[in-house]
Amino acid sequence: MSSIDMAGGPPERNPIARLWYDKETRSIIMQILTIVLLLTFFGVIINNAVENLRLLGKTFSFSFLWTEASYDINQHLIEYTSTSTHLRAATVGILNTLLVAVCGIILATILGFIMGVMRLSPNWLINKLVYCVIEFVRNVPVLLHILLVHGLVVHALPQPRGLPDWANFGDLAFLTNRGLFMPSPIFEGGSSAILIAFIAAVGFSWWFKRHAKKIQDDTGRVLPVFWVSVGAIIGLPLVAYLVTGMPIGWEVPQQSTFNLRGGMVIRPEFMALWLALSVYTACFIAEIVRAGILAVSKGQWEASQALGASRGLTLKNVVIPQALRVIVPPLTSQYLNITKNSSLAIAIGYMDVVATIGGISLMQTGKEMETMIIVLMFYLIVSLLISAVMNWFNQRIKLVER
Amino acid sequence: MSSQDQAVQSYAPGEHPDLPAPMLTSGPLFWIKENLASSWLNITLTVITALFLFVVIPPLLNWAFLDAVYVAADRNECRELGSGACWAFVSERFTFFVYAFYPSGERWRVDLAFIMLILALVPLLYDKTPYRGYGLIYACLYPFIAYWLLLGGFFGLEEVETHAFGGIMLNMVIGITGIACSLPLGILLALGRQSEMPVVRMLCVVFIEFFRGVPLITILFVASTMLSYFLPPGSEFDLLLRVLIMVTLFSAAYLAEVIRGGLQAIPKGQFEASDSMGLKYWQSMRLIVLPQALKISIPGIVNSFIGLFKDTTLVLIIGLLDLLGLGKSALADAKWTGLSNEIYLSVAVFFFICCFSMSRYSLYLERKLETGHER
Predict the structure, then answer these.
(1) Mutating which of A24, A31, A47 best tests the B interface, going by the most B Cβ atoms within 10 A?
(2) Does residue A392 lie within any of the structural domains?
(3) What's the rounded Cα separation, in Å, for the pair A122 and B39?
(4) pLDDT, tens digit (0-9, with 9 covering 90-100), for B110-137
(5) In this complex, is the C-beta atom of A376 within 8 Å of any C-beta atom belonging to chain B?
(6) What is the ipTM for the molecules in this complex?
């Protein structure tokens, strides 16, 4: 380097400065610094945590999970009593979270698609009505929706005692402020045949769809796939039900003086959370759907019409497949949002994972760190799973470029 | 002039006055035909919707305004005076909902902070403000002034503890601090995620994905229960400050993804051009890349801010009394039982006004910035 000794040449630098001015070595230095800083940071906080735990006389272990929880959970999908373990309580909470998330995703998708299509309606009145609803719902916190709906369900619905006629659906189902009481099925011997028939019908429909596509590709003949599938899926289990001698009985809730007994009940907390989350998310989905359909260029509609396709066929085979490509990625994040927002359940006393393990178990055992780690891990895993599934779906529907 | 004269009058070619368009191709009738009655299906839909509105709207208006009671001492008096909503409760609690437990002699400080906030926002939001440069400097200083005004403790202002914060004021404090702090952090995270240094990139990815993967509630729980374990033994940490830090980190992770979208939309040529001009990394980011990337991501950024502002209500779950928390606890008042609809609707209206105006502003900005790309 020193051989270049011209006036105005690059300034001489000592070797250390030269290292710093080299892009690659500088990047390595920066990264080493980052790692050192990061390790120091974690070292300090872990050290603090150990020290704090020692001062409080606590230990870090998950063994509390196998001790008795001794609190009640009003809605449980699996067997649970107050003598069950904390692990069992956590499982019940996780199942409740998943239940409300899955129900919410289904209802929000349906409502969202309907509202999105209504928003594109040429009818001014419908268009503006849906616009007002969407803007109002979207710009109000979801927690407020949950509290409002919960307040409505608890205060506006009648008490079980002296139930008015409009809340009594033919003595079979009852809508009260303690929940929606419905008949629950009782499975007797032979009811497994119905399940087998149902699975067989689904398998048949799948095969028939492939078969019909093959026939259409070969001969151009279109088979009525939809009606045959619907007929098989409803008809086969029905036949099985009749042939096996109607093995499913129904336990109808009975009205006593003060309360309703028996049957199945959808609790007001679940109803409030489910409806509020679904409507809130549906408004976001509606805008996504609207944007997706508008993103399909008008030429696609016209080209499809020029080929002689009806409006329904155009929608089904031309517009929706293209709109889905735009819709799916933001839809994924809405599904994630509904799952994460279901944690607000704690505000109205629905026992989800945050309310059970992250709430009551935390208070009872004083294991802040362990319980919070379980809750955070659960949400991280669910988020990653939903992302993975939707990515797979996105891969399937995306434009294949040849 | 009689109509017969008109009929025989002749005009030179091209001099005939324009006739009005046929009734069904312009004007209100045409609009009705196009928008409400273009087909039988459309007519049916119009009729059903109109019937629905007719059934729903009048009772709602009656409840909310005509039969409502605005001044009353308690709930029973409300019920005697009218059958509709009981707004008397809301108006009685109004000052409480705004200032909560802030000492009543010091409330002028909250008012002043709010007025100064509006003065700081004008030059930020509207680029034709006179003396905008000074306005921007003031806007940068505002957070410190607001900190001094609200908390006090030095320069002659009496100190106010943070657990006296509540109501609308608390929502504003959390929302604005979160917005002001998370934007720079979000930009740094987005740049880090695009970085060529694998360690920095991994660090940012893990941070962003962690905060986006868990609900804000759990993060607030961490702030209220678990965070104190990681601090040196014996140190006390204000709950509001812990919440502010967590809300900022949470919001920064979402902003980082929005800004990353903007960064990815910048053509590679821009990076290469700034490199070839000899700009250093931070120079090229500051002068070339970020101005373009931020411009593209403005709608997303404002949407995140709206989300953040709505999420400030979640602090009620860990026991901070924001507007919604105060409303919820006010329901327990024996004098005013069973008025949840009135309270929640008033809170909803407050949030609607704030968030809707933010989204309108983002639309305005989007349209204004769009002109450069008009084809």
Answers:
(1) A31
(2) yes
(3) 10
(4) 899 999 998 888 888 888 888 888 888 8
(5) yes
(6) 0.88
